[in-house]
Please model this.
Amino acid sequence: MEEVTYTILRTIISILILMVCSLWFGKQINAHINLYNFALSITIGSFIANMGFDIKLNFFPMLSAFLTLILIFFLFSLLSAKNRVFRKWLSGRPTVIIEKGKILDKNMKKIRYTLDDLNQQLRELGIFDIVEVEFAILEVSGKLSVMKKTKYQHTLKQDLYPAMQNQDVTIPKELIMNGKMIEKNFNAQYSNSWLVNQLNLRKLELEDVQYAVITSKGHLFIDVYHDQLTTAIDLE
Model:
């Protein structure tokens, strides 16, 4: 009877700890589905199962190891938020599978991604004819993101205006992230000096900008750290 009571108490405590941790960083794990977070979620589940049900293992050493794991994850999260290079190393980076309608077989071979995989994921997105695809990117989560060719896209209000038509479509180019320029994405059209001039026109400094990107339509989008919102929407 004593063992049963001990097991019940361990299980209750373990579940409470899991609930607290889930509330703390559950959204982050779900929002950033990658190999690291996938492995972490499995490890957490193993810890909780052993803490709750395996009475042969001492509870407090297991709890110490579990809290150490959570602390390491928290520190990695802080580093990832502040350092883009570390974030890419930890999470990986997406792979372009189709560019301007051309299948990039070299990229597919690097990640051991087959044509069967590609066709299956396209069908899951409701695309049965690969000729419709302009760009396809395999995200770090394993999901395929697709941009259709202009003539296969749904009609939007902006398509009704002649000035909006016949524009080249490309993958968005990120120029600034977390206040730092991404030098490799600059080219003759969108140069470093051009971006600095655009910031000067908006009376902005580089450190004021959280994110700047050239959209697929060739427009510059800039988001600053201080959005000057009096109140932010908080969903309850």
